[in-house]
C-alpha cells in the first residue's frame, strides 16, 4: 500500500492539516503543539483558495479534540481508536490525545526510521550494551556480544518477536548510539505530525520521558505502512534466521510473532482480516496493540488500543472494536 501525500510541517510547533473525510465539513487548520500541557486547537475557514490552502495535508484523518465517540462500556482501555484508512474516516475514538506510554509499539517508529535511513543489506555487530539488558521480564532475542547479523534479519526478529536487545543493536548501527537514534526518532515524529510524542529509547522499555498518544500512533503506523518491507514483516507469523557468533560459528534460530491473531490464538471477527500489527506490554503502559486490517471490500483500517489491564482484555476489546467496521 502506498499513500500519496505526507503531512507538510510548518515547524516543530505548528502542523497544518485538512479535516476532509474525517470530522468536519469545512477546511481547517489544526494547531497541534508539542507542549506537554497544550491542547489541540482548530482554526476553521471556508475559503478554499486562501493563502493556507497549499499548506494542507491530504489523505489524513484528523480527529477534533471534542469529537470522541467513546463511552462504550465494552471498550475499557485508557485510549481507543479505529480509523477507516481508505476513506480517512474515524469510526471510534476515545482519549486519543491523552499522553500514555507506548511500550513496544515504540518499535514501529524504530522500524520506520531504520527503513528510511539504513541499508538492510548491512551487517550488524551486536555490542555489549545491546546484549546486556538487565530489566526483569524484558523480551529478548538472546543476542550475544560480538554476534554478526544482517540488518534485514535483525529488523525482522525485532518486530516479530519484540526483542529489545535487537532494538539497541539496530539503533547503534544506524546512528552510532541509541541517544543519537532517539533524536532521529523524535525528528521523524515531528516530520509526520506526531508532535505529542517523545521517544527516549528504541525499544519501549519504560522511561518516564518516553510517551505518545493513540492519535500519534495512528500517524506513525500509517507512515510505516507506506514501506512494503514493514508490511511484509508485521504480517509474518514466524521467521528463521542464521547469523554468526563472536567465534564465527553459525547460530540458527526461529522467532514467532507476538500477535495472537496471526498465531491463531485469537479469532478474527467475521469479515475482517488482520494483516499484522505490533503489540506492547509493560507494567506502566499496560497491554497495548496497533493493527492493520482489511474488510471484505479490501478497505484498510488502523486500530489502536492503549493501556488495557490485561492481554486477555486487550484482545477481547480489539475484536469488539473491529466489529465497528460493519456497524
Look at the structure and give the mean pLDDT: 85
What strand order characterises the main sheet?
Answer: 6-5-13-12-11
Low-pLDDT sequence parts: 1-21, 23-57
Total count of strands: 13
Q: Rg from C-alpha positions?
A: 19 Å
Biggest sheet details: 5 strands, antiparallel
Q: What is the end-to-end distance? A: 25 Å
Cα shape: globular
Estimate the strand proportion.
Answer: 15-25%
Give the second-level CATH assignment, the architecture of the domain at 103-257. Answer: 3-Layer(aba) Sandwich
Output the CATH class name of the domain at 103-257.
Answer: Alpha Beta
CATH superfamily label of the domain at 103-257: DD-peptidase/beta-lactamase superfamily
Look up the CATH topology of the domain at 103-257. Answer: Beta-lactamase
Give me the strand/helix succession. EEEEEEHEHEHHHHHEEHEEEH
Structural class category: alpha+beta
> If helices are DSSP runs of H or I spanning 4 or more residues, what is the number of helices?
9
Helix coverage percent of residues? 25-40%
Amino acid at each position: 500500500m502506498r499513500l500519496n501525500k505526507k503531512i507538510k510541517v510548518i515547524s516543530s510547533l505548528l502542523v497544518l492539516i485538512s479535516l476532509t473525510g474525517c470530522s468536519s465539513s469545512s477546511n481547517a487548520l489544526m494547531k497541534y503543539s508539542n507542549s506537554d500541557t497544550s491542547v489541540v486547537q482548530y482554526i476553521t475557514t471556508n475559503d478554499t483558495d486562501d493563502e493556507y490552502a497549499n499548506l494542507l495535508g491530504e489523505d489524513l484523518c484528523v480527529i477534533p479534540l471534542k469529537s470522541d465517540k467513546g463511552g462504550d462500556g465494552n471498550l475499557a482501555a485508557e485510549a481507543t481508536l479505529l480509523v477507516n484508512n481508505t476513506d480517512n474516516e474515524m469510526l471510534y475514538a476515545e482519549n486519543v490525545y491523552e499522553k500514555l506510554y507506548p511500550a513496544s509499539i515504540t518499535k514501529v517508529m524504530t522500524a520506520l526510521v531504520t527503513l528510511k535511513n539504513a541499508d538492510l543489506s548491512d551487517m550488524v555487530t551486536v555490542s555489549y550494551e545491546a546484549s546486556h539488558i538487565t530489566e526483569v521480564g524484558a523480551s529478548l532475542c538472546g543476542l550475544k556480544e560480538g554476534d554478526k547479523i544482517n540488518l534485514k534479519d535483525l529488523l525482522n526478529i525485532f518486530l516479530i518477536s519484540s526483542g529489545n536487545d535487537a532494538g539497541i543493536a539496530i539503533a547503534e548501527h544506524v546512528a552510532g548510539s541509541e541517544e543519537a537514534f532517539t533524536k532521529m526518532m523524535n525528528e521523524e515524529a515531528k516530520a509526520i505530525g506526531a508532535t505529542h510524542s517523545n521517544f527516549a529509547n528504541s525499544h519501549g522499555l519504560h522511561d518516564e520521558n518516553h510517551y505518545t498518544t493513540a492519535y500519534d500512533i495512528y500517524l506513525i503506523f500509517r507512515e510505516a505502512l507506506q514501506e512494503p518491507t514493514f508490511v511484509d514483516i508485521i504480517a509474518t507469523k514466524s521467521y528463521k534466521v542464521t547469523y554468526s557468533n563472536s567465534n564465527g560459528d553459525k547460530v540458527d534460530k526461529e522467532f514467532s510473532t507476538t500477535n495472537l491473531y496471526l498465531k491463531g490464538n485469537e479469532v478474527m471477527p467475521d469479515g475482517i482480516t488482520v494483516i499484522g500489527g505490533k503489540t506492547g506490554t509493560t507494567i506502566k503502559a499496560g497491554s497495548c496493540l496497533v493493527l492493520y486490517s482489511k474488510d471484505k471490500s479490501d478497505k484498510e483500517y488502523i486500530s489502536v488500543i492503549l493501556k488495557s489491564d490485561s492481554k486477555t482484555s486487550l484482545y477481547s476489546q480489539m475484536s469488539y472494536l473491529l466489529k465497528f467496521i460493519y456497524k
